[in-house]
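[stage:ingest] chain + small molecule (iron/sulfur cluster)
[stage:ingest] validated
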Amino acid sequence: MAANTVTPVTPVLPAPAGPAAPPGPGTSAEAAPKLGLPLPVLHATVLDWYAANARELPWRTPDASPWAVMVSEFMLQQTPVKRVLPVWETWMERWPTPADLAAEAPGEAVRMWGRLGYPRRALRLHGAAVAITEKHGGEVPEDHATLLSLPGVGEYTAAAVASFAFGQRHVVLDTNVRRVFARAVTGAEYPAQATTAAERRTATALLPAADRTAATWAVAVMELGALVCTARSPECGDCPLFTSCAWQRAGRPPYEGPARRGQIYEGTDRQVRGKLLAVLREAHDEVPQARLDEVWPDAVQRARALDGLVADGLVEPVEQGVYRLPR
Ligand code: SF4
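[stage:predict] done
[stage:export] C-alpha cells:
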C-alpha cells in the first residue's frame, strides 16, 4: 500500500466535541449534525485516494460488461479478491454472457464455482442467468428494482451492479463500507452484526449527489475498507482519513458490542459439505455412496451434510446410494 499522499483535512468527519458545524454545500439535513466539514472535501479526499491506490481488477475496466460485474459481485460477497480472480476469469471465458450460462445445467455452475465457498451462490447466479435470458432479452437489467427481482439478487447486489455496471447513485453497504463508516463516522471499531437503519441513513447522507461520482464513491470506500481500514489491523498511518477519523481521534476505543461471530471452519458441517461436493465436482459423473463415505469418518455428520446439500439443490440423488451434481 502506498503511503498516503493526500493532504490531510481536519476534521473531515464528525467533530468529536463542540457544536456541530452548519451544513456546508452538499450536506443534507441528515448529515449536518454529524459532519464537521462539507461533504465535498470528504468526497475529494477519498476519491483522490482511490484514484491513486485502487487495484486494477478486470471487472473494473471500462469494457467490463454488466454481466462481468454481476458475476464478480456474486463471487466477492463472501470471498476475497485473490481467490475470486482465477475463478472469475475461467467463468467469464466459458460463459461470457448470461445466455451462455443459462444454456448449461446448474451443476456446471456448481462445478466451476470450485472452492470459492458458499456454493449456493453458484446456483443463484445460474438462476439469475436463466431469468435474464428468459425475461430480459439476455441483458442484465439496469433498473435497481428489476435487478432486485432476479433470483439470488438482494439489496446489496442490486445496488452494487446498478452502481458499478451502470454508474447509478445507490447506497452500497458491504462489510468493508460498514466498517469504514463505523470507525470514521461513528467512532466504533466495528459496526453492528446486521445493517441498521441508522447506518443506512448515514450512508445515504454521505452519498455524493451526482450519479457517476456516487458510483465511484461507493467503490472507493469499499476499497479503503479492503486495503487500509481492514477488520483486524487497520493501517491508519496510510489512511486519507487519519486526522479526521472519529475512532482514531477518540483513541481507538476497543469494541464493546456483542461477541462477533468467528469464521470457524474445521470440523463443521460446512467443511464436510465442501469435501462431499469436491468429490462430486471432480467426478464428472454419478458418484456411489461408498466414494462419498471416504471423505469424512463421522457417519452421522456426513449424512447430515449430504442431506443438506440435497435440500439446497446442490446435489441430486439419482437412485438409492447414487448422487450427482444437479442437471
Ligand atoms: S484512520 Fe484508521 S480506523 Fe479510521 S478510517 Fe482510516 S484506517 Fe480506518
